[in-house]
Amino acid sequence: MSVAEAIVVQGLTKVYKGRLGDGVAAVNDLNFQVNQGEIFGFIGPNGAGKTTTIKMLLGLLFPTAGTALVMGKPAGDIDAKHKTSYLPESPYFYEHMNAGEVLDFYCQLFRMGPGARKEKIGELLDRVGLAKDGQRALRQYSKGMLQRVGIAQALINDPDLLIFDEPTSGLDPIAHKDIQDLILSLRDQGKTVFLSSHQLSDVERVCDRVAIINRGELVKIGSMEELLHAGRTIITISKPQTGLVDQLTPVVEHVAAEGDRVRLYVESEETVHNVLDMIRDKASLISVVPQRQTLEDLFVEIVREVRK
Amino acid sequence: MIIWAIAKTTVGDALRKKVLQIFLVVTIGLIVLSLSFSQTLSFSSQRGVSADLMMLKSFGLGLMALAGIFISLVLGVSLIPQEIERRTIYTILAKPVTRYEFIIGKFLGAILTLAITTGLMGVVFIATVVLKAWGAEQPALSKVAAQGITGVGTEKVQVFDMNMLWGVILIYLQFMVLSSVVLLFSTIFTSTVNFFMGAAVYVVGFASTIVQSLGGAEGAGPFLKIFYKVVFYVLPRFDQFNMPNQLLHPEASIANMGIYTMRMFLYAVVYALLALVLAILIFQNREV
């Protein structure tokens, strides 16, 4: 069965009962959907309910209320698991095994025969760059190498949906970049990626849409274009003719002079065109730099606002 | 395939536990050393080869039971909680693995590990006793041949006593039952609580005849009698698996150890299956 949405979450709620019978809502009435083929960012501060939501999507935790459909099936359904994979934050494996043995174990969980397993393991080790280290015990692996094993196990079943929980946490820049590239290559293959991360620059770079949750509730959801409004543009000129700066001052938001250079801060796109017309032949144009609000700016703004 | 994969991984992980290795090595070492104990103790020379063998069997079986109980507890208590603490369970249950497959795989892994450890201890135990019996038989036979003495004054020594094998199997069966109980507890309790709960079940189960007699005692109130009866029928009767007396004293009441072992095998399998089904039902609704 083909479904347009990889994940559909409706009224998803998880309340943890306290010792005194009181409840704490880790996730409260969450509603969102993840379309097939998109990279969906799921961000929020610590304790926002990201991992609880992921665990409910995987069937590890049971919702107090609401529903979650994964690949058209209820969360935790075996058919859904065949099409899904999961990479936890800092994955742990049986340390006495080597990477090949770990992958062999996970391949068996997909009921793969010995021949298919052997072929798959070689292919995966090669893909994550561990072909030469596949026979070394995992206890000798660095964090980055363990993360690569984690990625390899997540790719065994060629899943349609990949759920990544902090995949780049604690990695060096090279490993970090490799994982970013992998996520982008998965999108090129038409896969859906559900990415929970604190690395907001990563999320901004690779995600098509983003959901921001705080204290278990959905605060904002949308595409990058929808969420991040265009910022101001900085136009830098030099050697302006006498009187030009005075003419520009009422048009622009702010003027800053440094030596023979002048920086003009402009809010709207229309004004940018007007300013460029005004300075033509009356100054040397150095640069025009449009500035955009970052996901980090938006995230901090939203979380602070909610906390107030 | 899934159950077998989980079982194999559990065995590999368990056999690498330092505490299990140390217990196994120490137990095997003590069984071998018991050979020299029996030779140096003065009373054995007074009582003869039979007394030596009796002591060896008693000491060996006792050691195996003690080590096995400890190994069963250490192994069993961590079966599920450790998977959750280490977070290995997340990547396993995120795959197309049902919860019952996971529980059965873990249990199978535990009893396979116990089979390996009990097998090792059992082989060393039986070899030690056979060696002792064979060593005692040779001088006796040469003396008989040289002096032409027949019958009077010579002691008949049985080199291989089949009851030793039944004894080892019975000890293994009680480990299997204990493991199933501890696995059931591990779906509810933390490792530490589980260890003490498992140990308590073993002690009370071992004293089941006492519990039974308490249930029928004159002075006990009706509620207490019901309580003792429930404990007697619900907890496994571990004392029934410990038959060193019958092994050491062939004249004791059990006529056929083979048939008795078979009966206990059925009891152990049924009890372990019931505990396993209960563990599956609980784990089905357990959040991880």
Structure keywords:
heterodimer, A: 308 residues, alpha/beta, Rossmann fold, Alpha-Beta Plaits, 4-stranded antiparallel sheet, 11 helices, globular, B: 288 residues, mainly alpha, 13 helices
Give the biggest beta sheet of chain B.
Answer: none
Beta strands of chain B, count? 0
Q: How many helices of chain B?
A: 13
* CATH class descriptor name of the largest domain in chain A: Alpha Beta
Question: Judging from the principal axes of the Cα atoms, what is the shape of chain A?
Answer: globular
Question: What is the H/E string of chain A?
Answer: EEEHEEHEHHHEHEHEEHEHEEHEH
Mind explaining what this structure looks like?
The complex is a heterodimer of chains A (308) and B (288). Chain A contains eleven helices and 14 strands. The two termini of chain A are 46 Å apart. The longest helix of chain A has 16 residues, at 173-188. In chain A, helix 3 packs across helix 4 (114-127). Chain A is an alpha/beta fold and 308 residues long. Helices cover 79% and strands 0% of the residues of chain B. The interface between A and B is medium-sized, with 30 and 23 residues.
